[in-house]
Amino acid sequence: MERARYGAAAYSELAGELPQPFPRVMGPNAAAYVQEVVESGLTVDMVGRFERAFAAAHGVRHCVATPGCTPALHLTAMALGFDPGDEVIVSPVTDYGTLMGIVKEDLIPVFPDTAPGTVIVSAETIAPCITDRTRAILVVHKAGLIGDMDDIVALARRHGLVVIEDACQAVFGRYRGRLAGTLGDVGAFSFDSEKTLGSDVGGCMITNDDALAERARFVGQSRGAVNQPGFGRLHTVAGNALRMPQCTAAICLAQLEIIEEQVAHIDRMVRLLYALLAEIPGIAPMPVPETVDRCSAWMVGFSIDPGAFTCTADAFGQACAAAGIPGASTARYYLMPVACTFLAENAREGRYPYSRPPASRRYRYDADSCPNARQYLETWVRWTTFCARYQPEHCEQAAGIVREVADRYRR
Q1: Domain range for residue 167?
Q2: Is there a domain that residue 373 lies in?
């Protein structure tokens, strides 16, 4: 079985005339910052410089840089210090990286459904999932779409829950004038090479919680170690070493210097593309909530009305890719209750932490547990090659391809 590929390697065989993320647009100071790391003999604190700059850009007190977003979310789970068997409510339409840290810390992911016709959750879909074992809500801003976070945070406060934002696909997106990642208690970001603020790898968590930030550095970067005189390092907890490399920080710092302009441009292109797609009968672009002031989309997509066409969504996506939209396809694998088969197996077999106690009830992981999400993904076509290189003519070209395919298969 072929292993999954990431970064530029995942895009190397894609064909089409529309812009793609690679080769990346690099910040003008990228080479200079990397050279500074080299010329200092690795003594410059480039990681600290990036952390301070990213925190300042978001108006928060703390940024803790990590090797990637999956490690950032793992670091968050470690730092929160929940007990094994505690539950974390997680958006069901996402990537495995969102819940890996939860699983590794022996917490139990619980998936609410998405709001009808979307890939994002709401307070209404989350509320029925809250139990006396729930400790946090992890909200994913999929495709730059930020749900109604004010309602979600209010729900969390009523139940004493932590709110975590997976803002990997929404860096510098804005909701009601506020930046993604600052709307809850802690936010996590991705700087992997294909993402909007793309470095070679990289990620971070941000927070205003002083104790949480210190705990994250202790358990996630200092490996849970303290120095004991006459002995040396004493590991008081089972820690980790989730540290961002200095050269990665150098590239991230350079990319940070150009990201605001890039995201503002992306927002304009997303809205133009979706307006053009909305004019095509049988095609429904992803709905951008009115509360999203700036959509920082790493991927874009649309749904097809199956009654309007003679082909499946899979065939429609394949036809769009063949006609020139690189990577256009369906993406049912984003439905985590189905894609993570080990969850269903562990719950079914009662393996730790699904043994009772600590688990408080039977857990179900299948497509039927999230019918709105399942239905949406059945007719959804997306491409992850949307990037800051898009200009109005590219939006028109992409919409023209979709229109041509739609006309070809129209009933």
Answers
A1: 29-253
A2: no
- Helices and strands, counts by H and E, the chain: 14, 15
Look at residue 142 and tell me if it is in a domain: yes
Residue 357's pLDDT is 76
Closest of 328, 403, 380, 264 to residue 18, by C-alpha: 328
Interatomic CA distance for residues 307 and 330, integer angstroms:
17
Is residue 127 assigned to a domain?
yes
Structure tokens at 41: 């003999």
Per-residue DSSP letter, 306: G
pLDDT digit string, tens, across residues 22-65: 999 999 999 999 999 999 999 999 999 999 999 999 999 999 99
Q: CATH no. for residue 189?
A: 3.40.640.10
Note the pLDDT of residue 243: 96
Domain count, the chain: 1
Q: Is the pLDDT of residue 17 over 90?
A: no
| Cα–Cα nearest to 397, from 211, 389, 73 | 389
Dist CA 10 CA 22 (whole Å) = 10
| Model pLDDT for residues 306-322, shown as the tens digit of each residue | 999 999 999 999 999 99
Q: Is residue 354 part of a domain?
A: no
